[in-house]
């Protein structure tokens, strides 16, 4: 009789353990699918470039703006931003599909060249 009580108690503990684990997994699944931040339509990582010492530069499209961020393992810093109207990403995408793949270096040079052209025209006035 005592052995039956131990078996019954062990069965109940095991059942409740599986029930709690199942509940936790169900909550994880719902939260993961409901709050999925990687598939945002308002924010898109255009390109990244790794630098020395684990540092990285990111070009990110956020709403109607291109933002350049510099990041390391410890922090992420805002570097510069440009209005989306100044940069024609659709032309670059069509070039990329028809020609060789554009690198971060090429995109970065194009953005800086456009920025320098706009600054030099501002200084001429």
UniProtKB/TrEMBL annotation:
Listed InterPro entries: Flagellar_biosynth_FliO (IPR022781)
Residue stretches spanning the membrane: 13-31
UniProt entry keywords in alphabetical sequence: Cell membrane, Membrane, Transmembrane, Transmembrane helix
Pfam hit, one: FliO
Subcellular location: Cell membrane
Broad class of where this protein is predominantly found: membrane
Signal peptide as annotated in the record: none
GO cellular component, one term: membrane
GO biological process: bacterial-type flagellum organization
Domain of life: Bacteria
Protein name: Flagellar protein FliO/FliZ
Species assigned in the record: Halanaerobium praevalens (strain ATCC 33744 / DSM 2228 / GSL)
């Amino acid at each position: 009789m005592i052995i039956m009580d131990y078996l019954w108690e062990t069965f109940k503990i095991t059942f409740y353990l599986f029930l709690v684990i199942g509940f936790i997994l169900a909550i994880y699944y719902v939260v993961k699918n409901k709050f999925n931040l990687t598939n945002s339509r308002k924010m898109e990582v255009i390109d990244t470039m790794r630098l020395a010492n684990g540092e990285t530069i990111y070009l990110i499209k956020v709403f109607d703006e291109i933002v350049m961020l510099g990041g390391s393992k410890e922090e992420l810093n805002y570097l510069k931003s440009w209005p989306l109207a100044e940069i024609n990403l659709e032309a670059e995408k069509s070039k990329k599909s028809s020609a060789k793949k554009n690198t971060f270096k090429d995109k970065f040079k194009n953005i800086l060249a456009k920025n320098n052209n706009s600054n030099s025209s501002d200084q001429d006035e």
